[in-house]
Specification:
The chain is α/β, with parallel strands linked by helices. It is built from 14 helices and seven strands. A five-stranded parallel beta sheet has the order 1-2-3-7-6, sandwiched between helices. Strands 4-5 form a two-stranded antiparallel sheet. It is globular. 46% of the residues lie in helices and 9% in strands. Bound molecules: thiamine diphosphate and magnesium ion. Thiamine diphosphate is lined by residues 93, 133-135, 162-166, 193, 195-197, 257, 261.
């Protein structure tokens, strides 16, 4: 079944599982039982790692860390829909997607430890771009990358993540415009988590984000971002659309940032706890777990194994992060310029003594 409605066809998000885990749509999204279990496992592992990262920051082992609790379905469902060669342009909050793409978590977290910019994983090998802190700047990069793929005649699809707040940036609009005009194989994947640091979406933007697509001449849709099956199905459809040469899609995944913006933020200063409590009732993991148990995709033994895996993985990443030495200073100067400028060479000389 198609999960990509015509642009402007309604504001109810595409949903397959209700918050209590009961199906309200077609659960047959074309995933094998093994895949369905793997998705469950990744969601549990990702949340456990996210909490470990916050602990690592509190213990001084990471400098700053932006948690993604509540956004596991949006990230894992969308990442699962990509082919191996498809390319992701992330923000700074997509560690769960990075895990699914095979990015080494210890390397990724070097960015948050402050030892290396972007994380010292190879974006070409993992097909997952560097962590991007400047809001929305990855979007023109993604459009450019998608254009390059198109000109090369490749069938690679590019997916760019961004937040609700990012849609206020000119970069979002420029990327969307180019994507439409050039009919790029690009999925613009917005995680609307309700907040841009302390600014709620209602004060960020008027109108609905998914509807912006119509103005740029391509389809947009809103999906329940806490329903991993719906996110997967919608993204897979958008990816197939792009791969067929039919151009971009804007997906607005409605989710919620359960934690603070980052470990440098205290959401309790600007956000009502009742809102967070209400959001917890739509938790993506309990929803999917309930369905997995009821449908026989998982049982208690499988859930226990997921929890054990998550614990072991978090401990392994913790040890790896702490044990990783700071990289040599000269690395800071490598890969900046193909042809270094004289002032750059001078700075390099000064830094290296
Ligand atoms: C160009 C730019 N302006 C401001 C900031 C500061 N800043 C960091 S995150 C953020 C909010 C981003 O909100 P959203 O796009 O919704 O993503 P979320 O943090 O909710 O994942 C802002 C304003 C920045 N990093 N870059
Ligand atoms: Mg946001």
């Amino acid at each position: 079944m198609s999960h990509v409605p015509e642009a402007g066809s309604g504001t109810e998000p595409v949903r397959i599982l209700a918050p209590d885990g009961n199906p309200v749509g077609d659960v047959d999204v074309g995933l094998s039982a093994d895949d369905l279990r793997a998705i469950l496992r990744w969601m549990i592992v990702a949340r456990r790692l996210d909490r470990e990262c916050i602990a690592l920051q509190r213990q001084g082992e990471l400098a700053v860390y932006p948690g993604f609790e509540g956004q596991e379905a949006a990230q894992i469902g969308s990442a699962w829909a990509l082919g191996r060669e498809d390319f992701v342009w992330p923000t700074f909050r997509e560690l769960a997607s990075a895990l699914v793409r095979g990015v080494d978590a210890v390397r990724y977290l070097q960015y948050h430890r402050g030892t290396w910019h972007g994380g010292p994983y190879d974006p070409r090998a993992t097909r997952f771009g560097p962590i991007c802190i400047p809001i929305a700047t990855q979007l023109p990069h993604a459009a450019g990358y998608a254009l390059g793929q198109k000109l090369d005649g490749s069938d690679v699809v590019t997916l760019a993540y961004f937040g609700d707040g990012s849609t206020s940036e000119g970069d979002f609009h420029e990327a969307a415009n180019l994507a439409g005009v050039w009919n790029l194989p690009l999925v613009l994947f917005c995680q609307n988590n309700g907040w841009a640091i302390s600014l709620p979406t209602s004060e960020q933007t008027s109108g609905e984000i998914w509807r912006r697509a119509e103005g740029y001449g391509f389809p947009g849709l809103r999906v329940d971002g806490n329903d991993v099956l719906a996110v997967y199905a919608a993204t897979r459809e958008a990816v197939a659309h792009a791969r067929r040469g039919e151009g971009p899609t804007l997906i607005e995944a409605m989710t919620y940032r359960i934690g603070s913006h980052s470990t440098a933020d205290d959401a309790g200063r600007y956000r009502d706890e009742a809102e967070v409590e209400a959001a917890r009732q739509t938790d993506p993991i309990s929803r999917y777990r309930a369905w997995a148990l009821a449908s026989g995709v998982a049982d208690q033994a499988i859930l226990a194994a997921c929890d054990d895996d998550a614990e072991a993985f978090a401990m392994q990443v913790r040890e790896g992060v702490i044990a990783t030495p700071a990289p040599p200073v000269e690395w800071m100067f490598d890969w900046v310029y193909a042809a270094p400028t004289s002032s750059f060479e001078r700075q390099r000389g000064e830094a290296l003594g």
